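Q: Hi! First time doing this. I have a protein sequence and I read that you can turn it into a structure. Is that right? Here it is:
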Amino acid sequence: MFVDCLLSMRLLTAPLVAIAITASVYSAENAFPYWTMIAQWKNPLLFLAGMMAGVRWPDWDFLIPGLSHRSGLTHSLLLPMVVYFMALPAIAAGLSLGIALHLSSDIQPKAWTGGALIKFPVLGSIGKRLSPLWLFINIAGCIGIMAASLDIEPHFAQLIMLMVTSAGTFWYFSREEKRRLIPLTTLAASGLLVHSFRSGLLTLNAVTQLFV
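A: Yes, that's right. Below is the predicted 3D structure, encoded as structure tokens:
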């Protein structure tokens, strides 16, 4: 019971802080609509809030009834995609970064068995071959959503968001992850894949053939 309480506190703290930041930003925007500094810092702060929530979101499968640990619903790009299409790109970008960091750690379990495998309601586990592939595809998808979201931001906001990205990544791997090589390599490979796709160097057909 004590361990469960500690886990719940760990999973709830960051999202609650993120909600507080988001509420403060929108409240300040409504209270001081002509304050230009709020307009400049609004999206970087929303990006930070999204990242804080996103790092913990995948493990909310512990709290959601009907989901098993390593659920494919939380360990995916589903949430940031929904938020992105709700016209909240800054929050979606932050969520994408946080989830990508979390999934990059999940891609190196001690063994691809039991709790390490991706699972879906009714369907169950997708197995030890598809689980790492699922994680990699969703890491790349999250990075793609983040890149698309950053594209529409003004230069100042992009600069601050990239600084938050660097600081957040450093914090995560210095505090949350002891084995850093595979996660960082996975993030780098995913980023390169997204860049190649967005720049036209790689087509969807070519990516599909890699897995056939």
